[in-house]
Amino acid sequence: MQPTSLAFEAKAHAALDNPALQSALGSIKTGWQAGRSRAAEALPEFEALRDRGRDIKNHTLQHLDLYLEMFETKLAAAGGQLHFARDAAEARATVLDLCRTAEARAVTKSKSMVAEEIGINEHLEANGIERIETDLGEYIIQLRKEPPSHLVGPAVHLTKDQVSDLFAEHHGGPRIEDPAALVAEARRVLREKYFQADIGITGANFLVAETGTIVTVTNEGNAELTQGLPRTHIVITSLEKLVPTIDDAFTLLRLLARSATGQEFSAYTTLVTGPKRPADLDGPDRLHVVLVDNGRTKMLGTALQEMLRCIRCGACMNHCPVYLAAGGHAYGWVYVGPMGSVLTPQFAGIEETHTLPNASTFCGRCEAVCPVRIPLPKLMRHWREVQFEKGLTPPTARYGLRAWGFVATRPALYRAVTRAAAAVLGLLGRGTGRFRHLPLAGGWTQSRDLPAPSGTTFMAAWAKQAGRPSEPK
Ligand code: SF4
């Protein structure tokens, strides 16, 4: 998928003018956002669990080579096979090769963001292999030929009415409005497809090194049918999903569902260790794990290593005022919201995506809710610095920042300039107490008024309140 992140601003403006999108995004606040808050309050050890989750991830990243080797050995002992892919092209080639070996004509697929990242959907279709998405949200966006707009709810940008129209158009029946009936209709269509698939492709939420186990969670049970019915199961996943032990996986699972949707646990949690064994009644004959690097090992030992703790819960976007206004498609690539603003420049290049680290008010809500305590604002600031160093910041901002730096590092000059500015603005805004238009503040006054200052600076007002004669010269 080619990034279109440089069009973020234009797309965000279009999103603000789209009432259906705004209505769909509004449901995140009352649903997942409120749910996370209730779930966190109901679990006394939630904050301690977040510390534990952070520590498990940090420990794994520090010993990634060890756990990777352990996982490969245990997976092989259980009958599975690991394929390491250095980049997206290598991962696509491996998956296609596995499909050809199995003479696959159709694959069922459950949600995998890494699969989106490597562009496997287009690649399979370009090579004549039918792809059937089995996650309800993914199925909806497949019909609409759209990318996902959220990690957990790929079709969260759509209203129920839009889905009703879509199903009526594609399924050929009467238009249904009842949500339960819509789900039943999708289930009826998809059930048939499961039996036609030669291969099932899933992602993985965690890879357990001590046992070679793959952990997946869903609320629909679709990953279980995807991996259990066809003869071959391919897992497309990435390095940072490794955890040392089953206990560690369960610690993170307790955080994942609460942070994502406010559930105590997802409806289905499946642990797969190897393909079907002789005594098993069902399951695939072959299990392949395609482990994608795609720039992740380059993040180790850098400022961005902390981002590899991400467990893809979506809480940061559910609480981000920018995401909740602009929606996921404005971000122009696979990963969206605050986590996407950090990851996308790494995977797709800062030159093509430098708008994203600026798509933040730095209110800090993303960091406050992240279950593994990733300092997202700090990491976005890192990209802003890279952007500035590479000369990608617009000239007005660059020269403006330079001028600001010059003034701000000279306290006497700073006080003189701010005193003069406060006095002039106080005088000009005396009549109405606000400005409708102000040079250099067009972004602010475009959609709201700027309150006029009182005519004095904050420092002077503070000195006066503290009983000092005046602010320092
Ligand atoms: S950055 Fe944190 S909050 Fe955002 S998806 Fe990842 S784990 Fe969840």
Tell me briefly what this model is.
The protein has helices at residues 8-16, 19-42, 46-62, 64-77, 88-101, 113-118, 120-126, 136-144, 160-171, 179-196, 222-228, 246-260, 296-299, 315-318, 321-326, 337-348, 350-353, 365-369, 376-389, 395-408, 411-428, 442-445, 458-465, and strands at 81-85, 106-109, 130-133, 199-202, 206-208, 213-218, 232-238, 242-243, 268-272, 286-292, 434-435, 450-451. With 473 residues, it is an alpha/beta fold.
Strand order of the largest sheet: 1-10-7-4-2-3
Q: Structural class per helix/strand content?
A: alpha/beta
Q: What summary fits the major beta sheet? A: 6 strands, parallel
Shape: globular
Q: What share of the residues lie within helices?
A: 40-55%
CATH topology of the largest domain: Rossmann fold
The CATH first-level class of the largest domain comes to: Alpha Beta
Strand content: 5-15%
Number of helices: 23
User: Can you tell me the CATH superfamily of the largest domain?
Assistant: NagB/RpiA/CoA transferase-like
Compute the number of structural domains.
Answer: 3
Low-pLDDT ranges:
none
Bound molecules: iron/sulfur cluster
Mean pLDDT: 94
β-strand number? 12
Q: Would you identify the CATH architecture of the largest domain?
A: 3-Layer(aba) Sandwich
